[in-house]
């Protein structure tokens, strides 16, 4: 299988690029952000809990997020692999993902693709996205900056977990979307 961790700060283009990679390699994108938004929209218990963190720019607790991801993974079979988008965001989640892949699929992460974008560009992109999508967490610059701070305090160190396993590639996330896609595809092709 091809199991890709798509990595990068909020607004780095993970969702956009995941769509292209899904098509190219017959993968299923699993976005924890999308799962939370679905639950918030339908006002489920999980959605209400998630909302109290998301609207402050904080991460939802690991256990809640990991249980949700594991259940969702079981629902999608028949693909050549998965793209994990927005998960793992903490070292503990990275350890959980290794364990889940091993236990449920007898498999492992193939590569982590890390999109690099400067903070000020991220803020501008997210404010723009907020105007169109109506996402509450994209409407407010303070919440956006808190999410970027959460990224650097909790998520950035996840990179070390994968660097230590030699499963880490950095890609410049600024430029033409199609050029960025090509670079990501090249990195995936190295591991298949
Ligand atoms: P972004 O555009 O900020 O990358 P996502 O759509 O991936 O955002 O996620 C939106 C919000 O959902 C995050 O700011 C966070 O509060 C919550 N969230 C998503 N994935 C996770 C995760 N793996 N662990 C904890 N919280 C998460």
UniProtKB/TrEMBL annotation:
Its main location: cytoplasm. GO terms for cellular component: cytoplasm. Pfam families: ADK (PF00406). Monomer. Keywords: ATP-binding, Cytoplasm, Kinase, Nucleotide biosynthesis, Nucleotide-binding, Transferase. Catalyzes the reversible transfer of the terminal phosphate group between ATP and AMP. Plays an important role in cellular energy homeostasis and in adenine nucleotide metabolism. ATP binds at residues 11-16, 129, 175. GO terms for molecular function: AMP kinase activity; ATP binding. It catalyses: AMP + ATP = 2 ADP. Belongs to the adenylate kinase family. Pathway: Purine metabolism; AMP biosynthesis via salvage pathway; AMP from ADP: step 1/1. InterPro entries: Adenylat/UMP-CMP_kin, Adenylat_kinase_CS, P-loop_NTPase. It is found in: Cytoplasm. It comes from Moheibacter sediminis. GO terms for biological process: AMP salvage. It comes from the Bacteria. AMP binds at residues 32, 37, 58-60, 86-89, 93, 135, 147. Its EC number is 2.7.4.3. This is Adenylate kinase.
């Amino acid at each position: 299988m091809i199991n890709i961790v798509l990595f990068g700060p909020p607004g780095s283009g993970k969702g956009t690029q995941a769509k292209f990679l899904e098509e190219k390699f017959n993968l299923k994108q699993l976005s924890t952000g999308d799962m939370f938004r679905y639950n918030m929209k339908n006002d489920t218990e999980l959605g209400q809990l998630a909302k109290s963190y998301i609207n402050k720019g904080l991460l939802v607790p690991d256990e809640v997020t990991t249980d949700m991801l594991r259940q969702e993974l079981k629902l999608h079979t028949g693909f050549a692999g998965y793209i994990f988008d927005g998960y793992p965001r903490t070292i503990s989640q990275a350890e959980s993902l290794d364990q889940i892949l091993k236990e449920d699929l007898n498999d492992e992460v193939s590569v982590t693709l890390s999109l690099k974008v400067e903070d000020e560009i991220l803020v501008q992109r997210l404010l723009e996205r907020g105007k169109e999508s109506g996402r509450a967490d994209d409407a407010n610059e303070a919440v956006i900056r808190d999410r970027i701070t959460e990224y650097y305090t909790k998520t950035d160190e996840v990179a070390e977990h994968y660097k230590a396993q030699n499963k880490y590639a950095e890609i410049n996330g600024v430029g033409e979307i199609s050029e960025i896609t090509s670079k990501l595809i090249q990195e995936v092709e190295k591991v298949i």
